[in-house]
Amino acid sequence: MDRRSFLATAGAGGVAALAGCAGGDGTATEGDGTGTGSETGTQSQGTTTGTANGEMPELVVGTYGAFVDAPSTSPGPWLKQAFESEFDATLRYETPDSEVNYYIERALRNVDIPADLYVGLDVNMLIRIDENLDSGLFAPVDGLDRRDTVKESLEFDPRGRAVPYDTGYICIVYDETFGDGGFTAPETFDGLLRDQYAGDLLTQNPVSSATGKAFLLHTIKAKGEDGYLDYWGNLQENGVRVLEDWTASYTAYSNGEAPMVVSYSTDQVYANEEGENLAKHQLRFPNGQGYANPEGMAMFEGTDRPELARTFMDFVLRPEVQAEIAVRNVQYPATTTAELPESFAQYAQEPPEAVTFNYDTLRDNLSEWTSAWERQFVGN
Amino acid sequence: MSGPARGNGSSSGISVRRAVAALRRWGERRALTVVAAVTALVLGLLFYYPVGTVFVDAVYVGGEWTLGPLVDVLTDPFYRQIFRFTAYQALLSTAASVALGLPGAWVLSRFDFRGRETLRSLTILPFVMPSIMVAIGFVATFGRTGTLNRLLEALGLTEVTLLYSLPAIVVAHAFYNAPLVTRVTTAAWESVDASAVETARTLGASPRRAFRDVVLPQLLPAIAVGATLTFIFTFASFPIVLALGGVQLATVEVFIYSRVQNLAFAEAASLAVVETALSLGLTYAYLRYEARMSSSGRGARPQRRRPLWPASWTRRAAATRLAVAGYGAVVALVFVAPVASMLLESVTGPQGEFTLDHYLFLLERQRTGTSYQVRPLTAVRNSLVFGLGTLALALPMGVVTSVLTTRDFRGRKVLDALLMAPLTVSGIVVGLGMLRGLVFGTVVFGTRVQVTGALAVVAAHAVGAYPFVTRTVAPLLGGLDPRLVESARTLGASRVRALLDIELPLVAAGVVAGAAFAFAISIGEFDSTVILAEGSNSYTMPVAVQRYLGRRLGPATAMGCVLLVVTGLSFVVIERFGGRTGGRGGF
């Protein structure tokens, strides 16, 4: 099944690249492909010749568990198969439990990093890296053919290390069938404070959960730095419930514990695939906005396969690969050129307006904002 | 080992036999020392060293020694409030666990009924349940549309909102810890000598008086063990608090976790130091109490159990049985309903229909899973192998520690408390320490020494498990008549012989209970497993449950049910087999 969908989507390009590889006689040197905007085939040629005695080069990709091992669909296995069948390389996944922290820890302790790439970086992790390490951990990436197809609005690293490959829009998912039916979520943040919604919203800990953090940041966007704590005071009075993480809150939501949960705007894509009742997966973008939380990939500074890593990144940005990742990871693609299947376009919703804080603002304020929130919310 | 000495009577055979016998005698004499040394080594390497590396963060910041972070935490009113709340909820949880656990011990040790032993074995099952599964089961049982409310509705009563409140946390903690109270108390109750009770009765004591004067003093240390452990565990509780209470009711451990995630190590370590100091202090206080309480002169004949269905229904017999039935109903709601909810979830499809898809997913993953994915059977096998390995390591470690700490010497209680430390340090801190100290390795004489893989996982599990063996065995061992060992020693038995042949059979119930705990700790352990098994195929069942979590719960709950069935069967086997071999640590 995986194989067939791969052949259907990536057929022609793959053949050409394979031909390019087969034609290579191993004379090209490692540096050849850099920054010249050459074809993918040539780049992979450069890397295959990089290894001694014709051994297959191995690209080690660090990522989070769900990227390769979610029980539903995860893009990892497909990506590995598609990449390996086109390029003369093997792809090995590493899924450390503490995710990117694992690599920060290694760098802090001066232990070598075996991975070449990390997939699944977000702006918060990037800030954590920059706060804890003098080196950036990742190297700036240049020379990608498809770099400029990435949506400008999703770029989150001013130093050009992270290349966005997909994004989630965080919004409110609500259950129309809740109670006696006919439930609708309020259209604004202020609406959430109304009596009729008392105890109706579930969200996640903004200190440790990505969706929870996005929701907190969205309230800061809406209410301002000076107003968000008051707003949360009112939310708390109205019975908002903040749980550990997305899984815990979504479980409670699925069990009918509350009619609204902070989640992703791609919720219906999954619900549709699973044959669930879509009335239980309605979306609301508060104030007509969705908070964008793009995921990026980046190349470790110490990698000895920069060419292969670049080849991989370019591969990920291909229109058909972007579509496949979006569907399998249930996220939006990051490029303007992705060729999304109709079912995805039908059920995923992009917010009328996407909002997000940029790297600089977050680096200067994030820890202060969250800790002020924590002290107010937990102290009560 | 004794191969060459077998089979012929030649002179060389005799000398070899003599040599082997001498070796065995030497081994027997030194066995305690050897096991104690291994214990110290394993503890040092897999516990004190890694945890030490984390605690240093609290006092060594930016290349300088300082008390700053510790003082910051201690003087911050916000954190003081968090510590107060943490202690408060732990106190409530402990009271609830003891209240829920004691009747269980009474029923299990004083009544006879079909399946009693199986039920007794299964009391440990909640202990291995991954917390996310408990949370799922609790939401389904006590939630807005849960079993309890549907029951209340059917009875025409008003609905209750229990979730996201302190009572929800307390009940969930009781779910985890009441069985612990039940187990240690049952083990002690079964070790009560029937003749002492009979003597009291012959001397004219009423059954109530005999219980108060003879039985209760022997149960109190066990109840105190259960209560102390419960307090320590619930003090460091984290996933349950967040899943069922929410961030409003956060404990210290929640803050340690979030600080570690944000790499704010000095703050995390300071919080952990204070948390550990409090837990260790409590352990020390308990140990002093235990030393005062231990009574002597215990024999081997347990009291006779009453049939659950009495021969004649006197008013008294009926009242007793009514109490048992009432307790059964509470047990059904608190223990059976959440587990049943999880089972139900594992066979429920997206529209609420019956389906086996989630189990088919497990089969499919087993068949087609790749090297970087988690396969169910590998997880089952690893869990069992690690569990047995942990038993093999933790039982001797725990027994020897309990022998050492029931001897009299200066500073014994301090040593004992330090030996109990693995129970008091948070899993997050141990995990982080292992990551940095062992997984990344340390440079020794120019070479990087790393500790990972299956053996390290087993050793780490044993470190977490042996205090349970010690704490279930030591109070019983301390209560034995010292003359028993003395006479055996006078008759020429080595210390180990006396231990194996005299003492352990007398405290068999405690040893088997400890063994079950050791196995359960290994099965349920998560933090150090994921860290030490990194990148290898050493993942266990709880790790698999965690990995299968996603937008739909089915696969994770199906894996959770596999975990329950496999561990449930293992416990029954352990206790049946352990009971038969007389609890000699013969596994």
TrEMBL record, chain A:
Pfam families: SBP_bac_8 (PF13416). Signal peptide: none annotated. It comes from the Archaea. Gene3D superfamilies: Periplasmic binding protein-like II. Residues 28-38 have a biased composition (Gly residues). Residues 28-55 are annotated as: Disordered. InterPro entries: SBP, TAT_signal, ThiB-like. The keyword Signal applies. Residues 39-52 have a biased composition (Low complexity). Keywords: Signal. The keyword Transport does not apply. NCBIfam families: sfuA. PANTHER family: ABC TRANSPORTER SUBSTRATE-BINDING PROTEIN, THIAMINE-BINDING PERIPLASMIC PROTEIN-RELATED. This is Thiamine ABC transporter substrate-binding protein. It comes from Halogeometricum salsisoli.
